[in-house]
Protein 1
Amino acid sequence: MKAIRIEQPGPDYRLVLADVPVPKAGADEVMIKVAVAGINRADIAQAEGRYPPPAGASDILGMEVSGTIAEVGKRASGWRVGDEVCALVAGGGYAEFCIAPAEAVLRIPAEISLLDAAGLPEVFFTVWTNLFDSARLAPGERVLIHGGSSGIGTAAIQLCAARGHEVFTTAGSGEKCQVCERLGAKRAINYHEEDFVEVIKQATGGKGVDVILDMVGGEYIQRNISVAATWGRIVNIAYMSGMTATVNFGPVLMKRLSLLATTLRSRTNAEKGAIRDAVLQEVWPLIENGRVRPIIDSTFRLGEAQCAHDRMKKSEHIGKILLQM
């Protein structure tokens, strides 16, 4: 089969199309004939040598796919050859065939195409487990989503708005801010022109926000602490601007804040299955009734994976970038 391999892993990595053996599903797995794969920043980190796959996972890039089931393991109950699905995987997505644990496979929501479905698993698994499992976002609470125009950001804004939360977000241009507000954000803040701490404090009468979803880190760590409400929860899913910072923890103590950080890729299949079940129950109906939708920025062919990565690295995209077989 055709798949993308990494040549010269590191800052100057190259992605090349290669012939590799077709994988085989284990007893608790399915093999998917991939139609489309989603691009994620974790893929870039892996190609740069900074984020190796978990033990036992494919070293081929790609953590989410859509397609048709081509093989079913003997213990992978509930699935049949020919089912159209999307799935979260620990690796292997940039290929014509991909192995997925049965617990992380989802039927495609009604009225959603195979193309659009590839942009669903990673973002909604991530958003659900971080905002609603880890940060315990409760009805009526305010939320701040950093990186609002990213795949995760566009998903989080829509899901939180659909569930009745007041959403603030940050983005890097006026165009991106407009998109975020159309998706349901009460206020999108252009971080090149405004201080999100001051904007949110003014908008909330000084109270701040209850939950913050952050992938920036660095100097945002202290600013998140400043804008968090009493009993607020701050959850980091990445540290794109740095994993270290000098922090005044006084406000953490005085405001009784919780600082959280999670990863998804290395969790057990049972844990991913629990998230999958929650997403099916809580998110899929909102997609099927049109209140939440996949936001797709652009689509590249499999052999254009390098171009797709280059687009993501420029941070000009709004929504998901996809690879079509």
Protein 2
Amino acid sequence: MTAAITPIIMPKWGLEMREGTISAWLVEEGADISVGMPIIDVETDKISNAVEAPDPGLLRRKVAREGETLPVKALLGVMADRAVSDAEIDAFIQAYEVPDVEGGGEEGAPAYQVVTVDGLRVRYARRGPEGGVPVVFLHGFGGDLNNWLFNLDAVAEGSPVIALDLPGHGESEARLPGAKLADLAAFVGRFLDAIGVKRAHFVGHSMGGAIAAKLAGTDAPRVASLTLVNSAGLGPEINMAYIDGFVSAASRRELKPVVELLFADPGLVSRQLLDDLLRYKRLDGVTGLLQALAASLFGAGKQADLPGRELGSIDVPLLVVWGAKDQVIPAGHAKSAPSRATVKVFDDAGHMAMMEKANEVNALIKRHVGGSGG
């Protein structure tokens, strides 16, 4: 490979992605590309997103055509210095081979694993290098580990990563170990014991952030650092229209306007995303489970437990990330974080900041866990 040539490739967003469709090029050949610049829109069966440049350079060649569906790691375009000849670029494109990414995981490992904790089956995934303190991702109310589809592989470049479907969510068993934050936090601890993890960095979104904060309060030695993304547990207010709407929605027509509240850009809500959520909500026991969880956590129309406000007395490195356009939990709750916390609020993101500002959030997480020690 010529050192001065940088390929732009189809990213792998999430553990299940196999291909993506080119929606639109956002830059023209000859454009100077800076790190983080959106360069091409890609649609998957889960969500649409822009591929952002991981490296700077000059866009010399568009290889993928708009409307074309290509596998993960396929060559989309080429960046190169002006000194690189067209013949060298032609040779690079002709010689490029798409790496084999079948098997779902690293070196053919399965995409998901299953463990039974307290008689309850839990689906989880592990990625990244062996050894070191892992980064554990906890999703929010009604979510699953695929909420981190833009984050897991990026963070796994430098740290071992674990993501699970919390009890009653995703493909874990539709049963709760208890409906209080303390019950869920204790269960996460027992899950980690079951897979041999004694200490971890925790990244929690929404309800998952409150669970992580609760765990820090009850089992601080287990927590190497905390990253709270649009987190519950820092203030009492919550949009109950979202919670009640999500719990009660039984059709795509009913669910769509509810799920659109999660994003600053409602166009990110795809038909497949809605279908996946409806498939989950139609599982036996899920509606009652979500009702019980909502009644326990938000029963009086506000958050019942605020463990994030107790973090000031807990000596754990803390990163707080929010989207200013959050329509579920007010972004103003970020101000309740302890003064020692690193706080970042993105103006153009909503409740799903880890999706809408994935590159920026990933960089913040990697810097935070890298600087927090083990």
